[in-house]
User: What shape does this take?
Amino acid sequence: MATGALALPTMSLNSKRKAGEHGLRQGDSTTARLFLAFACFWPLMIMALFAASSPRVKTSIPGNASVPASNNLRMEIRNALDRVDIMGYGPTHPRVAVVVVGRDRQNLIASVESVFSKTDMDRIFVVTVVVDGMAEDLTLVQDLQKIDGGTIPHWHGQTPDLHNAGATQPKEEEAHGRKVHVIFNARQRGVTASRADGVEFIRLLSEKHEQAALKSPQEDLLLLLMEGGTQLESRRWLLPVTQALIVPPPLLGKEDSTVAMKLANAVSFNLEGPGKRTSFDETLAAVISESSAEDMNQNNGDSYPTPALNGAAIALRLDTYLNLPIHDESLQEAWPANLDLAMNLWLCADGIDMLEDAKVTSIDASPPAASLLPQQAARFAAAWMDETLAKKFFNAYTKTANPDMTYLEWETFQSAARQEPGFTAMTSRCRDFKWFIDRVNPELGNVLQASEELPKGKPMAANSETSAKSADAVEGNANTAERANEKTPVVPGKTPLHGERNDKERQEVDGSEEEFVIPERHDQKKPTKPLCKECLEIVQRARPVEIAYVDMSNGHREDPHRGARDTDGNFGYTHDETALRKNPPAINFMGDDLARACSKRDNNYRMLHEKVKIDFKAHAEAEKSLQKRDKIFCGIYSIESAHPRIQRIAETWGQKCDGFIVASNKTDATLNTVDIPHEGPEDYSNMWQKIRSMLSYIYDNYYEKYDWFHMGGDDLYILVENLRLYLESEEIKTAANGGIYLPDGTETTQVPLFLGRRFAYMGDMNDIFNSGGSGYTMNKAALKTLVVDGFPNLFSHAHTFSEDTMVARTFRHYNIFPYETKDENGGERYMPFMPGHHYGYRFPTDKSTDWYAKYSINIKEGLDHCAAHSVAFHYVKDEAMYRLHALLYGLCPAEPALES
Ligand SMILES: *[C@@H]1O[C@H](CO)[C@@H](O)[C@H](O)[C@H]1NC(C)=O
Ligand SMILES: *[C@@H]1O[C@H](CO)[C@@H](O)[C@H](O)[C@H]1NC(C)=O
Assistant: This one.
């Protein structure tokens, strides 16, 4: 007690906390515990004093037609307001607002009856019944309102009121104002959301009361959350519960009797039996356990902490509830919802107590299943634990609950959870989970402590057999366990900030934190920088594909696998795609032409001079390194009349591709053009069939030798060094490997990647495709999906010019979406126009008038538009092909070589 008295002055006395402040500035839970000890000795007398002196008033407030009608709850308030007894009790004896959630009518009725028969009627603010998953039922409303009208024995202060007992209808003159309000959720919303609905109604109602001066802002409301079927056991519940949540003023030695000490804890009503409490284990399943002797001694058994909530009945101040940082409405079932609420209360508020006098019974004999799905467990860890602890938890969780689960699956669940709209990582906002297992749930702490003794290098439980084996190995190898247990320094920046923990505590926690290395399968490494959120989302929607070649040619009898014709028109021709690379022609652009092209100071010059460069340095380093470079196959579509363009491509960037062919209607080995016939006419309006045959030819002949396939038209300019470096980047490698880990080179599957310039068709973000202009780059998995799965099954005989949207639609069928290819500064890598166009382009005021503005997705203007290491430009014709090349590669006469 003495310690408690000393602690008093340090506690905050403000009676009204600002919303949001709560989670970070909450009083220390230990101090809260000591307060509770005081609270329980508070004389019972007070209650009678307040209750007896309170008159019963019936009032209605003037209507206001302009009350916002956006929310159904708001519309119902006016009605409810007229019906509720108005009564102010002041700061120490607030009224209680009850939320009963359930769907069984008998259970709901039993709970509401118990509230009215076991609670001072004058202190009931409102009883909100949320019927979850039931359409409006008038008979249920009537049954509930009979209770409401005073038809069962009830109390006003200490006075029993039996005036209407047994009557089917309340006598008019003695009827009480209605306190029951029923909300029907026709579509089931689950426990968390239903509670939130009930609370929101109460909050709005209370606001209205305050506006109408019918409730003092000094008066708190106590919230009692009940599960349908729960019944209050004794009339002695409200006093101790009030005192556990609000410490009355005289104890603080304050003159001002309106200042009460408000705690942000909750009371969990006892359902389990004396001294018992609800806890949970490393699988996050509910466990009923004995309270420790120490906890029981602290307050002589009058109150003791509980790590979790049984969910039957929970009392807390309305403000406490409203200030909890999260109410994850996706939590449907009772146990996950209660676990989440318990974490909120312990880590972001003052914790949960059980009281000797707050007991309930439940009609439901068997409690609902109290465990979590693996997704929910992963989400729980992502929300509440820092990375180090989450990994320990993963080990303990999988060992007991789910030995077949791999860390990759776990992380996939975690990242999916993190991307949900309502998700908040609590580790930076509240106390951390380490505090919880040290102070509140040491049993769980011991299990997690044991799980970190697993040696590093334990293979992830790829199957139960392996994990069983490695578990044996652990037991047999004390040295390994000892070594793993050695303390290592904490990685700076890994420890979340805790606004309210004092320095000593912080030291304690940090000092005991040990580095934990996740045992890896093979050599799973993460990229230096994780994928962007959208990037990961795109990658994780697609399924990995076996990249082994599957023969689709079927004897090359039909389109699109008929193959190519040689110069004599005979089928069966296969071009040597490395011919250009092996015999690169010199650039035929010199003298006056070159000088003139170089001297122009237009926007093309500016963009290439000021921003876009070939990354010569990284290219040289990559060439020097012993690492195998990625092989790029460049496929161009063209027709005979455009072959002069092909010559210029060959002299400039084409020769930098590892493989190069031009799909044309005339085979010319010197130009690397190949006559690839296709269904329908040789016409721009039939591009889709042309691309089908071209990609099938490439797949049939060159698939196995190349890592990447870039397709585009004959007015395309590719910055091949930049493209290759991009494709070899950690980001793209990680993306092709599922989005989390870098590949180790042994993979036999790949996530299909479809890279290019993303456009939203007509501005529709659900219809994103890669613009054909700059061409698009596919990895093996993507090309194979297109040729093996897509072409035979989708749009096989469609004739259309817009091959790019058709390719995107085909990919979309397999959940393959254009990958986000902007660089880290938001610069685009693939360009639909010439450099100068992007340099000068500005959005029109009315974006709907400009297709490019409409189709574009978050692009920047001017210099910022292009990534410094862009990979492709479009509409590069005639001399421009030479000119861009000369500017990029420093071929201009009087100019010093351009270095990146
Ligand atoms: C009705 O409510 C609105 C918004 O709260 C307020 O501006 C207005 O003055 C009120 N009107 C009356 C008649 O009370
Ligand atoms: C290729 O197609 C174009 C356009 O249809 C046509 O003009 C040309 O004659 C064709 N060339 C050959 C060799 O068929």
About this structure: The first helix runs from residue 2 to 7.
